[in-house]
Amino acid sequence: VSSTRAARKPRRAAPIPLLLVHGGAGALASDRDRRIHTRAVREALQHGLERLESGAAAAVLAAVSYMESETVLNAGRGATLDVSGRVTLDAGFMDGRTLRFGSVGCVTRTPNPIILAHALSRDGTYGRFLVGASADALVERVGAPLCSPEDLITHRALEVWRGRRNKERLVSADTVGAVALDAEGQVAAAVSTGGLSRKPAGRVGDSAVVGAGFWSENRLGACVTTGIGEAMLREGTARRCVKLLAGDLSPADAAQTALEELSDRHKRAPAGLILVTSDGAFAIAHTSPAMTAGLAGPGRRVTVRSRWA
Ligand code: GLY
Predict the structure, then answer these.
(1) Does residue 54 surpass a pLDDT of 80?
(2) What's residue 5's pLDDT?
(3) 39-51 burial by CB neighbour count: b if 16+ within 10 A, else e?
(4) Which of 38, 175, 287, 292 is labelled catalytic?
(5) pTM of the model
């Protein structure tokens, strides 16, 4: 487990805003991949930072929408293909003030499922989770960009899919995510993914499931995860990590504990997470060989690395 050494700071009257973004835990195959991922995460941080004054929710939505619209990460257009050669997208959003969440699974009609997830977080008392045709039907209703299922498939993703046609094992695929704390003390979490490459048709992973792939509550903080979703689904990793902050653990120790619990029980499930606390501390941690991630805030230099040790 690699993590920052940031210690928990004393509670502040007015928190210093902070945005964290990641482009997925995995193994970057080449220096070129590392450069491409680093640039995408840096630009997502810059987009999110421009919106941070409007609040944590606006910042994480801007960062994640940007990464969905990039074709190099496993989210939105250019995401990985399922076993039948289709792109189906999952996304989740959670508001730390209301604890309302919104989730969508198996979306095929927009490159920006995070817009649908955010819209659903305003639905009902708790929020809403919709999959398949019901989620796709939201695209026009909420004004998200509309596309055909084929528009989501890039040449690169198709080549990767063809190259893996005869491989049995599902491989880990990246996810993109963001967490933020704003000047009002609000936190928010947003996550989006194409899921595992060659996943079974209809499979939904942790990124659409509140508690597993994302969690946000103003009292403690916000967390999003990346890695093989089934492991996080079983452990409820994002919620577990945030709840660990209620004890005496520093953010780095909470992140490390949550990931150790995951790797103790799931030896073959490398993972990663980003965590921001309600008092402005953070952790970035991963058990995967790499995780391109970074942070930004007013008066703070934008920092992006592909390994956090
Ligand atoms: N973490 C993304 C997925 O397993 O779907």
Answers:
(1) yes
(2) 47
(3) ebbbbbbbbbbeb
(4) 175
(5) 0.93
